[in-house]
Amino acid sequence: MLKVYLSGEIHTDWREQIVEGAKGLDVEFSSPVTDHAASDDCGVAILGGEENKYWHDHKGAMVNAIRTRKGIADADVVVVRFGEKYKQWNAAFDAGYAAALGKSLIILQQPEHDHALKEVDAAALAVARDPVQVVQILQYVLTGKLPA
């Protein structure tokens, strides 16, 4: 079984496309919480409210980091998606953490981000442009077969 952690942008259905495309492959997927409100508010919901937005966000980031670190540490492959609309600083951090742990890293990004992400891309074993390519990489890794 190949364990794959899907990190990064949460505003599109790229994760669902990969999971659907990988049906029939021996893959187990995990990811951060993708419910934006739950992710933002988990710290205060569990550890108590904060009037200052900085501490509100800080508590959420710390609680989310527990899940993220576990998911990346347990993964054989980490896929990090950089979306078009927002700056995903957390995605860059996750890519760096995965690289530091020696994880096989696949970056999923559009060509217009090539320059900005050149250091991240240099740490990756593959830079894919769409979810289909990620699925094809997973299929090749597990079966040795090229796409039809």
From TrEMBL:
Pfam families: Nuc_deoxyri_tr3
NCBIfam families xref list: YtoQ_fam (TIGR03646)
The protein, known as: YtoQ family protein
Protein species of origin: Lutimaribacter saemankumensis
